[in-house]
Write a structure and sequence with these properties.
The protein has 143 residues and is mainly beta. It contains one helix and six strands. Strand 5 and strand 6 form a beta hairpin.
Length: 143
């Protein structure tokens, strides 16, 4: 049913159930997902430590899982949670707070053609698994 990717992992997008705000991105394997579904406590796989972690177990900033959905390709899960405290291990409300990239002005006329992929993506497919080295770092609980 689920299409686990490189290393047997799925990206888990986490959003606040009340507001819909995206809080963080983490990684789950089949066991982390099973633990989450069974306990309603968000449980992830730490790629850097090579172990499971329950969000908030050490920080107190817990995530009570309200719903779990899979995307149309069955290769990503969406957790809707009741977040207690900041979601990010840096202490910010979300892992995206204050980390916005600058966009070109709305009237910029050098927009790339929508029908042509950049040369660096020519051989890539939307269905291809990302390279392990290209995966973004997952948020981690403080040690």
């Amino acid at each position: 049913m689920l299409a686990f990717g490189v290393g047997g992992l799925l990206p888990a997008v986490v959003q606040e159930a009340r507001t819909g705000e995206v809080l963080m991105l983490a990684w789950m394997d089949a066991e982390a997902l099973a633990r989450t579904l069974r306990t309603r406590r968000a449980t992830y796989w730490s790629r850097s430590r090579g172990e499971y972690w329950v969000k908030g177990e050490t920080s107190g900033h817990t995530q009570r899982v309200e719903a779990v959905r899979i995307d149309c390709d069955a290769d990503t899960v969406l957790l809707s949670v009741a977040q207690t405290g900041p979601a990010c291990h840096t202490g910010t409300a979300t892992c995206f707070t204050g980390r916005e990239l600058p966009l070109a002005p709305p009237d910029a006329d050098e927009a790339p053609s929508a029908d042509r992929a950049p040369a660096s993506h020519a051989a890539a497919s939307d269905d291809a698994a990302p390279e392990a080295a290209a995966e973004p770092a997952a948020p981690e609980e403080p040690a």
